[in-house]
TrEMBL record:
<dbReference type="InterPro" id="IPR000683">
    <property type="entry name" value="Gfo/Idh/MocA-like_OxRdtase_N"/>
</dbReference>
<protein>
    <submittedName>
        <fullName>Gfo/Idh/MocA family oxidoreductase</fullName>
    </submittedName>
</protein>
<dbReference type="Pfam" id="PF01408">
    <property type="entry name" value="GFO_IDH_MocA"/>
</dbReference>
<feature type="domain" description="Gfo/Idh/MocA-like oxidoreductase bacterial type C-terminal">
    <location>
        <begin position="225"/>
        <end position="282"/>
    </location>
</feature>
<dbReference type="InterPro" id="IPR050463">
    <property type="entry name" value="Gfo/Idh/MocA_oxidrdct_glycsds"/>
</dbReference>
<dbReference type="Pfam" id="PF19051">
    <property type="entry name" value="GFO_IDH_MocA_C2"/>
</dbReference>
<feature type="domain" description="Gfo/Idh/MocA-like oxidoreductase N-terminal">
    <location>
        <begin position="55"/>
        <end position="182"/>
    </location>
</feature>
<dbReference type="InterPro" id="IPR036291">
    <property type="entry name" value="NAD(P)-bd_dom_sf"/>
</dbReference>
<dbReference type="GO" id="GO:0000166">
    <property type="term" value="F:nucleotide binding"/>
</dbReference>
<dbReference type="InterPro" id="IPR043906">
    <property type="entry name" value="Gfo/Idh/MocA_OxRdtase_bact_C"/>
</dbReference>
Amino acid sequence: MIGSMSGPEPGPTVSGTDAMAAGITRRAWLGGAAALAMPGVASGRRRAAPSDRVNLAVIGAGGMGAANMMRLTGQNIVAAADPDFDHVAKSFIDRQGATIPQRAPLRAAYDRATRYADYRRMFDKQRDLDAVLIATPDHHHAVAAKMAMERGLHVYVQKPLTYTVGEGRLLGELARRNPKLITQMGNQGHSGHDGRRVVEIVRGGAIGRVREVHAWTNRPMWPQGIARPAARAKPASLDWDVWLGPATVNWGYNPDYTHFNWRGWVPFGVGALGDMGAHLLDFPLWALSPGLPTRIESRHSIWGGDTDLWDGRPPAELGSYPLAGVTYYEFGDAPGGPVRLTWYDGGLMPPTPPGLPAGVAMNPDGGVLYIGDKGMLMHETYGEKPVLIGEGVAERAAAVPQTLLRVAGGRDGHEMNWIAAIRGEAPISSPFAEAVPLNETMLLGVVAMRAGQPIRYDGRAGRIIDVTDANRFLERDYRQGWTL
């Protein structure tokens, strides 16, 4: 199946996110606007009235797609696209084969919906759509989202927004040129109450000037750092050609590639950084508004599939991503001076900060640590459970006023926030205008990994300025029939 993976009183939504690429000219933001000209793009559908139910389609109907759509069963789910509906059916049953009660409404909605193996056929035939939720493997995101946006459909795209930097910029420009389209990236922590309070506290100066940030995750939790497995016979229910979609490789089917496992394989996913960066890097980039990174370097374990002694360079044919790594970001153009952000994955973590309160531990699943000149702040993956560290920090934080509106339902309201914005009831939480720079930052870590050496980046031009050969990793090739 395409879609398997992956406080204060609530009030109306607000984006609250500063544009991380502030000051970037429109021409430069595109890295050459002419290359992304889309002369036939639809102007965008009307916003639905508050009383309307939105006509929805889902692309990638099981796994994370099912989890998203569970929150949208009050809408009209009129179509679903997935290359393996036998696998989608597993999203609704427990180990004994009984329907999970909470998922019965979605199962009924899917039973009523028109089904397609190939979302391209859905876009050709389904004329009653208002909006599309995309929860495919990463390599399909941009292709599906662009097709939807060109047809004037609102889009919700799971994180990472795209597989490449260039794709992200393309979707960002489509959104800019079609302001009636409501766009949302599926980084649900952005709608959480705790995360928004973290942003307020950091911006409010409670921990002073922040020049150093550490973010970590226990991912990968899927096959990674391993050799490519042998091909097997595919399940009869799986349309393997559709699953491959725009990928230019055909290694043959293996269950290590499909459903939740695709994240660790280079042709299909973007590894641990792409999987969790949209959650963990979101808050420091939101709070500090440092712009795009100017220097990126990755240190990591061996690439999956290497057979020779490793000299630090990626192998000629990339299989799975390294099992663990550390990525260093420098934001040399950050207001008030440079900021350094260090990312750890594969279970690696920064040292325990001094002064951590008794009984508080760094969560090995993931977290973020901000080091300021007047104290520190630490929180878990989705901005949750913030901990203040240092003398006087708690008192200063308590005095910081609420400046960001809260999303109704917090993290759990991220999908319905999209619907509310389509209806004109609330501002959107994580639109592409703000998601694209976040997406670009985390993908630049993957680019540095693939380059095998530090890279310097010009965010205005969207180009690597020293290791020029690495610019090829900002884009990718597409299989015939699946081009952007």
